[in-house]
From TrEMBL:
InterPro entries to which the protein is assigned, alphabetical: L-PG_synthase/AglD (IPR022791)
Residue segments, region Disordered: 305-330
Keywords: Cell membrane, Membrane, Transmembrane, Transmembrane helix
Membrane association type: Multi-pass membrane protein
Biased composition (Basic and acidic residues): 305-315
Statement: the UniProt record of this protein carries the keyword Plastid: no
Taxonomic superkingdom: Bacteria
Sequence intervals crossing the membrane: 40-60, 123-140, 146-165, 198-221, 233-252, 259-276, 282-301
Compartment list: Cell membrane
Name of the molecule in the record: Flippase-like domain-containing protein
Pfam families on file: LPG_synthase_TM
Organism per entry: Nocardioides jiangsuensis
Length: 330
């Protein structure tokens, strides 16, 4: 499948999920979710986003340094805010990541390193999120608890395989494209993610990000009128947040609402309640990323000159230059 067809398939998938929800539940849950957003919940989400964004930027900076594409935290934070805003405002949910990857790669004179740093940063966060989700879903009642032992084995096997790949030194595996890819991935894992100076910070940052997103979802549930206990709500939040990472969405909307409707319905809380909670969460997240719009505006007023490969990467600053068509990110 070509890249263009895949992009349209992802967008149509998200649209189809939303269309089915409207068909089955009507527009009421969506409108109710929008009406229930209040100032306190928006302020709470914005405050939590300061912490989660700083942690994501720290994780990105650690990995980029390990890959030889140094990125200071003071530059990573505004760039990550911009990335989150673009992800929340544009179709697909990844265009912001593509933009920051391309800008960083150009700034350090190595587009490949910039793209790989972002891809590994996103992947590292998702691995930690999945591991935490498995723990929560194993310990607390949820619609998928009966399947979790098998899922835990599969996830554990995958993480072990990645760890072994990162510790390996595959030098004599040939010169084919696949062999070079394996060597590059092993080197990136070993130097960018599993190095002693990097992995503790990456894990800590990722855990704090997951906790922050879960707290935001729980606040959204309360704002949407849910009275379920935290113990009952946390597994549902974990499932919905996993769905939010599926790239088949329209600016974040689609799979998140679909899984929320299913999970809340199976848990006895009502599919409409799940959709309303997801809508509140989506609005909260969008508002929390608005500082990224400010970054875009300021950058458009103070454009930097084109980056050159000889520039010191420590002086890199994010700009609003559009990324080229056809780029792909994590």
């Amino acid at each position: 499948m070509s890249r263009t067809r895949w992009t349209w398939a992802r967008l149509l998938g998200g649209a189809a999920i939303l269309a089915v929800l409207v068909w089955r539940l009507g527009t009421g849950p969506f409108l109710d979710g929008v009406r229930r957003v209040d100032g306190w919940s928006l302020a709470a989400a914005t405050g939590i986003a300061v912490l989660t964004t700083a942690c994501c930027a720290w994780r990105w900076s650690l990995i980029a340094r390990g890959l030889g594409a140094a990125l200071p935290l003071r530059a990573a934070v505004p760039a990550y805010y911009r990335s989150q805003f673009l992800n929340s405002a544009l179709p697909g949910g990844v265009l912001g990541d593509v933009h920051r990857a391309v800008r960083h790669g150009r700034a350090v004179g190595d587009l490949s390193r910039g793209l790989r740093a972002v891809a590994w940063e996103r992947s590292a966060g998702q691995v930690v999120q999945v591991l935490l989700a498995v723990v929560v879903l194993l310990l607390l009642p949820s619609p998928v608890r009966s399947s979790m032992p098998l899922v835990a084995v599969a996830v554990g096997t995958g993480v072990l395989a990645l760890a072994l790949l990162g510790r390996a030194h595959p030098r004599g595996v040939g010169t084919s494209l696949r062999a070079r890819t394996v060597r590059a991935a092993a080197t990136d894992l070993r130097e960018g993610l599993l190095a002693r100076r990097a992995w503790p910070g990456i894990v800590l940052a990722s855990v704090l990000v997951v906790v922050g997103h879960a707290m935001t979802f729980l606040i959204a549930a309360r704002a949407a009128g849910s009275v379920a206990s935290t113990v009952r709500m946390l597994p549902l939040a974990v499932l919905v947040l996993l769905a939010a990472g599926v790239p088949t969405n329209i600016a974040g909307w689609g799979p998140r609402e679909g899984v929320a409707a299913w999970a809340f319905g199976v848990a006895g809380l009502g599919a409409a309640q799940g959709v309303a909670t997801s809508v509140v969460y989506g609005v909260m997240v969008l508002v929390a990323t608005l500082p990224g719009a400010v970054v875009l505006l300021v950058a458009s007023l103070h454009r930097d000159p084109p980056a050159r490969g000889a520039e010191d990467p420590r002086r890199w600053r994010p700009t609003a230059t559009a990324c080229p068509e056809g780029a792909a990110g994590g």
